[in-house]
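sorry for the late reply, my laptop died twice this morning and i had to redo everyting from scratch. anyway the thing you sent over, i finally got around to it. pasting the sequence first so we're on the same page, its 160 residues, then the predicted structure underneath. double check i copied it right bc i was rushing
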Amino acid sequence: MWNSRALQQPLLFQLLILQSLLVAAVLAQRSTTPAWNTLTGNRPLVIARGGFSGLFPDSTTLAYNFALSTSVPDVLLWCDVQLTKDGFGLCLSDVKIDNDTDIANFYPNKSTTYTVNGVCTTGYFSLDYTSTQLANVSVVQAIYSRTNLYDGLPILTVDD
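ok and here's the structure:
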């Protein structure tokens, strides 16, 4: 039997966070004096690496859209690019893709070992798979203490 109260608590917490961020964004836009004093006197450049990845899985549509909607007009969005065997660029935060995707569900026991920065590293690497093989693989929250509510989003390509 579902405990509806237990299911509502994480959602309520997330809505409170969203509301707080939106209020802060509105108040910041109303201010006539700069909120930040930078060394150059210009407003700070906001770089959203992976989007708003504090709440959403890194480099997902939700993370990028939320960063765009709650940031300055000229925010710079960027993703870390991992290449597939057939040369497609994927937006994934680490060279090992098993931490932020569910690839092990599709290819169990298919990890490989490469020397990465002089260290033997075992895991799943995008360069071992084609874009077609990764088409059904989803992005998951890479920090396990965060909610998995948004897991299952598609892997974005550089073209996306």
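The first strand starts at residue 47 and ends at 49.
thats about all i looked at so far, will dig more tmrw
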